[in-house]
Amino acid sequence: MSAIAVTIAGSDSSGGAGIQADLKTFSALGVYGASVITALTAQNTKGVNGIHDVPAHFIAAQIDAVFSDLKVNAVKIGMLSVPVAIATVAAGLERWKQTLVVLDPVMIATSGDRLLSPAAIEVLKRDLIPRALVVTPNLHEAAALLDEPVARNEAEMRAQAERLLGIGAKAVLIKGGHAQGPEAVDLLVTPEAAARLSTEKIDTVNTHGTGCTLSAAIAAGLAKGYRLSEAVADAKSYVTHAIGAADELEIGHGHGPTHHFHAWW
User: Fold this and answer.
1) What is the CATH number of the domain that holds 96?
2) Is residue 254 flagged as an active site residue?
3) What is the mean pLDDT of each run of 10 residues along the chain (265 residues)?
4) SS3 string of the chain?
């Protein structure tokens, strides 16, 4: 039986993040990828020039088309820019009884452009976070979800992850790649334990789509039957190598993409 993962996210017209990055990641990790597009973006490696939200009824139609036919093993959720899209996706997950869900609370692009309206944050917390197996915020996203300052160290990262557990998350992978210091430290926090995942930081500006890629890689692992801890560790390794090979590509004039197919070309 083929492992199948679905990405529910926005489209990146430059191909480095969003739906495009997710499908590349699924393919690179040996998983068949399907998609539900929630928004179109006009963007490139330098920034986001426009966002066109897909109507809620058509998001629902895509969900029903995919899940009624494909035996979906895991779901990754990315960009949901408006409250009605979040509510529609939450209803779809409930309708199709999806539990292996990776939620990447995409709020700001690598370029700094905002991708989530402030009004949508409360709906995300209420409707989607409790339905996810794991939530994968970076430092700025975790702070925004909690309306708190950005965590400055690992102790504060863990404390914020635990507060996200308190609002309904089953597990939180809080990503510390934006923190100061030579290491990129992520913490996987559950009600029972916390695990530290650390790699040396890679000196490159080509980090477009790293968050999308990591969450998609976790979903790919879950689709293949990995336990959450295994899926997270495997995804961290994959993304680290993809960032390390990013400078082999020459894409655009801003923050280029990671190299999803570094193992092949």
Assistant:
1) 3.40.1190.20
2) no
3) 95 96 98 97 93 96 98 97 94 98 84 70 93 96 92 95 96 83 90 94 93 97 98 97 95 96 94
4) CCCEEEEEEEEECCCCCHHHHHHHHHHHCCCEEEEEEEEEEEEECCEEEEEEECCHHHHHHHHHHHHHHCCCCEEEECCCCCHHHHHHHHHHHHHCCCCCEEECCCCECCCCCECCCHHHHHHHHHHHHHHCCEECCEHHHHHHHHCCCCCCCHHHHHHHHHHHHHCCCCCEEEECCCCCCCEEEEEEECCCCEEEEEEECCCCCCCECHHHHHHHHHHHHHHCCCCHHHHHHHHHHHHHHHHHCHHHCCCCCCCCECCCCCCCC
Residue 10 a catalytic site member: no
User: Catalytic site residue 213?
Assistant: no
pTM for the whole structure: 0.95
Residue 180 is predicted with a pLDDT of 64
Q: Which of 88, 136, 190, 210 is catalytic?
A: 210
- Check if 45 is active-site: no
Q: Is 204 a catalytic residue?
A: no
Choosing from 211, 221, 240, 258, which is the catalytic residue?
Answer: 211
Does residue 14 fall inside a structural domain?
A: yes
* pLDDT score at 234: 98
Q: What pLDDT does 119 receive? A: 78
Is residue 164 situated within a structural domain? no
Catalytic residue among 10, 15, 212, 221: 212
**Looking at 41, 207, 213, 240, which residue is catalytic?**
207
Considering the domain boundaries, does residue 105 fall inside one?
Answer: yes
210 is catalytic: yes
